[in-house]
Amino acid sequence: MQWSAARPIISSTSIHVSRGWSETINAARRDVYSDAIWTAAYKAMSSLVQLHTYVGNKRVSFFDLRAQNDEDRARILTWAQKAAMDNLAGAVRRRPFKILEAPTTNEALEPYKVPPPKLIAVDCVRDKLYLQFFSTRSYTFREPLDISAMTASQQKAFAEYEELIGVRTRSIPCFDTAVIDMTTELVEIRVDFQPGVSEDKDVSPFARVVAELNRIGTKYINQGVVGPGLINLHPVINPMYLDDKCGRVTALGFVATGKDSSSNNRGQLHRSKTKDFRKDEFHVGGKLHVDKIDPYAIGITWSQKDPKSDLSLEIRGNARALYNRKHGQVNDVEIVGCLDLADYEFVRDQVLSRLKRSRK
Fold first, then answer.
1. Is the pLDDT of residue 1 over 60?
2. Of the four, 115, 221, 267, 340, which is 20 to 30 A from 214 by CA?
């Protein structure tokens, strides 16, 4: 788990967190003989870590059940509300482990690299059915190598290099969530991802979760749960860009169109951790010299009070979406920094509130 995610979790237990992992561990050791502190810390951390598997760093897609015919939609919603918990109770009892008992070592994760993802929890909360799946995925990490720790002959071989970078592939435990919302008639697919880390392009966690959800649906109601209705999120990008009250625009991809030409900056996203591009002098000045700005990708950040991390989302569309709706769809939003359900719903609803959907 990243320190940015772990810090507010540990802070909730009243353990000091201002100086990173090492100081936090040392501070905790000083209270090692206090059963009360450790019991309270374990309970708080267990609850928050379990919740974090549902809302932390997710790539989220939405299916609109209203895109299905009335009979199929009603069958799905009725099953989710009245029968799914009982139908899936046996599968949950046979699960290989509970959420907090999930394996973390490479050896223990090996059996879960092969699809399908394993169903390990089912819950129904406030008219939402949550199906929690577990799987293992491989990620590639780039790490600096310490030349001084090498043998003399190795140091000589690499003497002309200022920096060495090693590439390491690690197995990561992943929790992916399918949510059937009986009120909004939406299905969310939340897929775990590691921000800034290379993924295996040959593996689609989204497709695997959808396939398993549809297999479950076929078994109990003789039809898949999702298929038609995958929502294109491109239409929410421009309204977010134009809304000054919608956080800070910290990533932006756009096409600038002038009288005789247009440019999309070679498809590169502009990024800033601290600025709001809506107010950035360079961006605002540039807008004055073109006819219009059409954003096709956007990142929004909302600041939070310490010790919570900032909340952010990113919708990575491409310029083709401005010219060809069929080939320019963007079907997921990356949501990062959420500690609890309130955080997640706040960010998610920034997207959903700007979608135009058909009525029931």
1. no
2. 340
Could you give the C-alpha distances from 95 to 89, 92, 117, 213, in angstroms and in order? 10, 5, 11, 16
Three-state DSSP class for residue 209: helix
Q: Taking the mean position of all CA atoms in its chain, how far away is CA 282?
A: 31
Nearest to 243 by CA among 195, 212, 276: 276
DSSP string, 217-284: HHHHHSS-S-SS-BPP-GGGHHHHHH-TTS-EEEEEEEEEE-SS-EE-GGGPPEE-SS--TTT-HHHH
Beta-carbon contacts of 90 under 8 Å, excluding residues fewer than 6 positions away, are none
Going by the DSSP 8-state scheme, the letter that residue 334 receives in this structure is E
Residues 6+ apart with CB under 8 A from 181: 127, 128, 187, 188
Q: How many residues does the chain have?
A: 360
Per-residue pLDDT tens digits for 53-73: 999 899 999 999 999 999 999
For residue 91, give the nearest of 130, 128, 119, 54 by alpha carbon. Answer: 119
For 307, the 3-state DSSP assignment is coil
Q: What is the pLDDT of residues 93-148, one digit of tens each?
A: 999 999 989 998 888 999 898 889 999 999 999 999 999 999 998 888 888 888 88
Closest by Cα among 298, 272, 277, 276 to 287: 277
One-letter amino acid identity for 269? L
* Secondary structure class of 357 (helix, strand, coil): coil
Q: What percent of the chain has pLDDT over 70?
A: 81
- 128 alpha-carbon distance from chain centroid: 19
Kindly state the tokens that stand for 180. Answer: 């059937």
| Sign of CA pseudo-dihedral 149, 153, 155, 161 | negative
